[in-house]
Every structure is written in C-alpha cells, then in structure tokens.
Amino acid sequence: MAILVTPETKILVQGITGSFGARHATLSLAYGSQVVAGVTPGKGGQLFEGKVPIFDTVAEAVKATGATASAVFVPPPFAADAILEGADANLELVVAITEGIPVNDMIRVKRALQGRSTRLIGPNCPGLVTPGTGPQSSGGCRIGIAPGYIHKKGHIGVVSRSGTLTYEAVWQLTCRGVGQSTCVGIGGDPVNGTSHLDVIKRFMADPETPGIIMIGEIGGAAEEEAAEWIAKYGTKPVAGFIAGATAPPGRRMGHAGAIVSGGKGTAQAKIDAFRAAGIGISRTPSEMADTLLRMM
Amino acid sequence: MNIHEYQAKQLLARHGVAVPAGDPCKTVEEARVAATKLFAAGHPLAVVKSQIHAGGRGKGTFKHGFQGGVKLAKSVEEAVNFADNMLGKVLVTKQTGPEGRLVQTILVAAAESIRMEFYLAVLLDRNVSRPLIMASTEGGVEIEEVAEKSPEKIIREHVDPAVGLMPYQTRKIASALGLKGDLFNQACKLIAAVYKTWWESDASMVEINPLCIVEGPGGKESIVAVDAKIGLDENALYRHPDIAAMRDLAEESPLEVEASKHALNYIKLDGNIACLVNGAGLAMSTMDIIKHFGGDPANFLDVGGGASKDQVSAAFKIILSDASVKAILVNIFGGIMDCNVIATGIVEAVRETGLKLPLVVRLEGNNVAAGKKTLAESGLTIIGGDSMADAAQKVVKTLRPA
Prior knowledge:
CATH architecture of the largest domain in chain B: 3-Layer(aba) Sandwich
Largest sheet of chain B: 6 strands, antiparallel
Number of strands of chain B: 19
Shape of chain A: globular
Number of strands of chain A: 14
Order of helices and strands of chain A: EHEEEHEHEHEEEEHEHEHEHEH
Helix content of chain A: 25-40%
Radius of gyration of chain B: 26 Å
CATH superfamily of the largest domain in chain B: Succinyl-CoA synthetase domains
Oligomer: heterodimer
Number of domains of chain A: 2
CATH architecture of the largest domain in chain A: 3-Layer(aba) Sandwich
Distance between the termini of chain A: 19 Å
CATH topology of the largest domain in chain A: Rossmann fold
C-alpha cells in the first residue's frame, strides 16, 4: 500500500514541453510511471517523445486519458493559473514543482481550493514517489523531480519540506535494506497545499506504513502542529529531524519559508515540540534512518 | 527584500497613507533645501533620520563619535549640521554589528507633535495562509515585547483573500484601538490603505510603528505613519519593476550580491568552515552538523538542484573571497545531477583558484563511483567523506592542532 498515489496512478504533466518539465517527464517515463498526457496551451495534438499526447487544456487531457494527478512545471507567473486549471478539471492531486511563485498568488490559490476535492502538494517541492517492484524501485509512481533509483519498495513513510534532505533520508533507508511506502516532499514555501500533518494523518491511517520519518526546518509552525496531533493520536513510531539550528534569525535560508522571524519558528522550538510528542529526535541528518529503526 | 524607511513611506503615501512631510537627501545641500522647506511651512521641529536597513538607529553611534542616527533639529542650521555628521559616515547600532553601515541617504522630515502611539502591521499568517492585520495601543515599542508581556493588547484580524479587507473589519480595529469621531474615520481609511499597500505591492510585511495621533497647527488631530518598515516578496518583484529598483545593493554583503548574480543562494556567517551544498534543506543541515561536531560554519551556500560546472566554480570563488574561511566542506547529494560533473567542476575550481585550504568532499548519488574516481585521480589533496557525519567530523578535525 501507499498513500496519495500508486504505481497505477495516471499522471499528466502541465508544462511538458518546457525544458524542466520535459526532462522530468522523460525520467518519470523511464522509471515506469504512467505519464499519460502532457498539457501545453497551443501545442495540443502533438506528441511528447513520440508517444505521450499533448493537449491544450487539462480538461481535455483528463477526458481523453483518465489522468487523475498532475505535475505542474510551468513558470512562476503562470503557475497559480495552472494549479487552478487542474482543480477545475477535478484532478485528485496537483503537485506543483515550480519554485518562485508569489506568495499572494498562493494565498488566493489556497483559498480557491477550499471546499474542492483536489489536493495540492507544493509548490516549490520535489514531488512524491511511491516506489515500484522493479529494479531500483522502477515501476513505481514518480511525480516531480526526485531521483527514482534511490528508493526501494517497502513500508516507511517519509515527509519533508526539503528535496535533497528527503533524498538523504530515503537513501539512508535504502542502504540499510529498508524500503519506503511513499515519500512526499511538501515544499519549502510559506503557503503550501499540503502540510506535514496532512501527510502524517495519511501515513497513520495506512496499514502498510508502520513507521514514519518527518523532516522539518525553521520557519512557521507546521512541525509543531503535526507534533501536537501525534502526541494525541499517534499510533506509530515517528523519527524527526529539523534543519536550521544554526541559521541566523531574520534571514531566508534558500527556501522562501525557512526564516526565523520575531523569535518564531526556531529549530529549538520544533525539536522541543517533537520531544514532547515522543518523536525520536535525529540529532544530525546522518542519523534519520537509524533513529527510526531503533524505535521499531 | 527590504527597503529603506523613506521608500516604505513613498509606497504607503502612494496608496493614501498619511506620512509626515519630508524628503530623502543624499547631500548636505539637499538636506538644507529640505529643512528650509519644512521650517518655512511652519513646522517647529525637523527630524533627521539615517536611512539604513537596521533597527536601533536612534541609539546608534557613528564611528567618528557622533551620537544618534536620528536627531531632532530646531533650525535649518542644526539640521544641516546633523546631515553633515551622518551622510557618508558609518553608523553602528545593536543590529548592524561592529562594522556598522554607511549612511548614504538621510530622511529630513517634519517632527510631528505626537499625542498617542499605536502599532499597526500587515503580514502573512502562515498557520492559516491568510493575511493578518495586527494592531495595538502599545505603539513605539517592539511588538515581540508586547506579545510577551501583554498579549491581550494585540488586536488580530484575518482577511479572507476571496473578498479582501472589508470596511467593517477596519471599523472593528479602529474601535478596539479606542478611537472616536473623526479619528475613528481616519483610522478606518488608513488601515484600508495600509492593507492595500501590502497586497498591491506583494509585501511580505508592512509595519507601522509607531502609528501616531499627532497635533497639527491649530490643534487639529490626525493619524500619521511616523515610522514604517516594508519587506517584499522577492518572488513577486518581476511584476513590480518600480519596487525592484528600490533594492539598495550597498545594504547587502558584497559576496551575497555576487552570489545572486550566479543564481547561488549564499549567506555569510561568522565561522571559518565554508560549505557548498545542493539544496536548501541539506545546506542548512550541513551547517548544523558542522556545529554539532564542534566547528563553526562560515556560510550557507545552496548551489541548487541542477548546478552546472560554472556555478560550482563561481561558488568556490565566493567562498574563497571570505578571508575567515580556513577549511571547506562540499556536500552533494546528486539525485538527478551527475556526481562526476560536480567532481570535475570541483577539480577545475581547485586548480583554477590554487586552493591551499583543506577540502573535504562528500559525494552521494547518481554516478558517484565515477565522481569519486575523478577526485582521486586529480592528484589533489581532497579528503573524502563517506557520510555527512564522517565528512563533518573530518573537516572539523583539519582545524584542530595535530
């Protein structure tokens, strides 16, 4: 089992003819994911790599191919529109990879998604992977930009705001012979579609995910919110790591959302919340997998 | 991106917020003209304010001994004297660090006769992904302090982005601030204008502290933004070329400016172990792990997910321009990126720069074997790290006396 996506999930790629979108659509196809359609306005009727049909609109792509999930690679000025087009076409999942979307655009997008069935992951995220059973986990569902081959089909859930830190955790697990059910990168922006807690709840409800790694970073209070819920309702071991203990206050550390402001969103406050919730603390990023495995 | 107080007031005024009369000045002569205008208009006092992106200006000291980055002048001559002591001089405040900041612009403005001070700000409430207006009767002090000591004195009003700020919300806030009559109506208008500034400028924060009831000529009271601070969402600058032009490169570290030209994310810190990492989360945690093993990170540096050879080379040059750097840790998780491309970039950069400092490289991921081979066969003394912990321990050890 897995959460959010399975190897059968049919994926469309918004912005499939841009260099970034094309590159990762190709990699997803090579991984064995079901990339069934691309969307680039004005290029409807063409084929991507000679096999994936391209449509002018998401609605057309959905109607023709039955896609239920989308990866958004369109540039920042057009990303909010692309996300809402996916929601309008009633996609189950829209994964926004695009980095650099104005915060006010995301405030409006998030408000417009209220009451809709579409779940948004990201933006500014690596996407998600449900590993498959083939060599180097191929045959799984890869939506986004994560390297597929580092995964291994298995049972640990991974959720993180950071891309490379997710890969680090996944690789530590895979190197120890431990596979993953689904790995979700929720993105480093201050306004995002899916929170740590949203993903944690799904992992807790997934009978095939007995353990979770949660990776957070400075800024906001999403990690604290997840920890509070875990303290009350958590039924599975969770190991956690928080990046940014040495970050100077008031500076954005690469991610738009990674900032300690007015004494809020510090690494220490998050680590304290983790500890209070019984989450295993990985003191360095090298110990994320071992911390969880010791708890299981 | 941060802007100066005078620029923040320009943006606010453009949206209809009342600010004290005044002009930004870059020379003593301009200051004389500005001050003359104010006194001629009947203002009994002018305030001369150093424009730097750091707080604590009023209590700051200039390196040449002059006290105070914000001064009240009773005459044109006094204002000119203050301007002469500020312009081109370095101001040190509790927020600038001992190196201080060069004052290149001053704001010469009417010093208002203040009857009451309030606090007003608009920012994003990340917990609910909505704009939040914060107001308080406790103006002129740091809001964090108010939040700590008397949280009940902070008024909070969220805005639904679907409908925007509604007039009844401005009335709620004005009423909670205890305002009546004409001042009540003025406050409602001002709150709406401040919100509009926030939304239409794509600001990350607009803070007016203090927002003041001032007494004008003839005893007429009005509400004025006496000080203002605006932070902007860099992601949205592409649609505000006028605001983007307000960026003051002199307020940023030269190395950070250079890094931004190469699309590198670099922040200088106080330590001596430089790091070069791909990915923001990994870059932050690389700093953390250096500290964990007893070292001191010299910087945050994220070369991004798809770093090129040229970017790696530019990154090395930036790291090496920091004289306090005594050792370097490269930590790359090449997911999609080819580790061998990175390794080749490192070898070239080391040769090009004639690097003499200890260099520890931890490579993991795509084509890592070839990358490690390239490093080993380069003939350079590069210390390999097997994991982040191993690499961090090794780089810290290079700085310990044997």
